[in-house]
Write a structure and sequence with these properties.
This protein has four helices and no strands.
């Protein structure tokens, strides 16, 4: 099981994920699209709560909201410049 999970992470995350990431950078302005990566930890916690039943404490929700707010401000600030 452990080696299968490692192989999956190596192939999907490292190789197939790069195609989607670089395609996204090619479609939009790289400086703006790259800011979306800031939301990845929030999405990871959200999926962990939905799929694995992880607990969402008020501090986790507040921290996630702060990250999303900062990412949104970063994208909007860059687009005005």
């Amino acid at each position: 099981m452990g080696s299968g999970a490692f192989a999956y992470l190596a192939v999907v995350s490292m190789y197939l994920g790069f195609f989607a990431w670089y395609r996204g950078l090619a479609i939009g302005p790289p400086a703006r699209v790259a800011q979306i990566q800031l939301t990845q930890p929030v999405m990871t916690v959200g999926w962990a709560a939905l799929l694995l039943g992880e607990a969402l404490t008020p501090m986790v929700v507040l921290g996630g909201a702060a990250v999303l707010l900062c990412a949104t401000l970063a994208v909007r600030t860059r687009s005005r410049s």
